[in-house]
Amino acid sequence: QVQLESSGGGVVQAGHSLRLSCAASGRTSSITRLGWFRQAPGKDRELVASITWTGTATYPADSVKGRFTISRDNSKNTVYLQMNSLQPEDTAVYYCAAWDTNSYSYWGQGTQVTISS
User: Fold this and answer.
1) How far apart are CA 17 and CA 22, in angstroms?
2) What strand order describes the sheet that includes 68-73?
3) Is there a contact between 10 and 83 (Cβ–Cβ < 8 Å)?
4) Cβ contacts of 46 within 8 Å, gap of 6 or more
5) pLDDT digits (tens, 9 = 90+) for 53-96
6) How do residues 14-49 score in pLDDT, each as one tens digit?
7) Are 4 and 107 in contact (CB under 8 A)?
8) 8 and 21 in contact (C-beta within 8 Å)?
9) Pairing mode, if any, of strands 111-116 and 10-13?
10) CA dihedral 9, 110, 100, 61 (to 10 degrees)
């Protein structure tokens, strides 16, 4: 089993920044990729960014390209999501998830990000 603990959410004004952290523990050797998802009220969960342990990052959500950066610290089994120039539409619950074998099998508890205009 893998446990994921996310932190770093909060309430900030538009244009400001936040950094989310996701610390993995347990059988982390089975993980090949960590991702950040978000789910806004009334919307589907979307994959915002993902990164492999070797450092290959992807940003499927066009709305965050150029503003969000995903990174990892393998020594700490931790993945970060640096979010800059935040906008009200970034308001959502953000979840980290770990890819094991062929799916995102493990999920963190979610952290609320609220952007005020």
Assistant:
1) 17
2) 2-7, 18-26, 78-83, 68-73
3) no
4) 37, 38, 39, 60, 61
5) 888 989 888 899 999 999 999 899 999 999 999 999 999 999 99
6) 999 999 999 999 998 999 999 999 999 999 999 999
7) yes
8) yes
9) parallel
10) -60
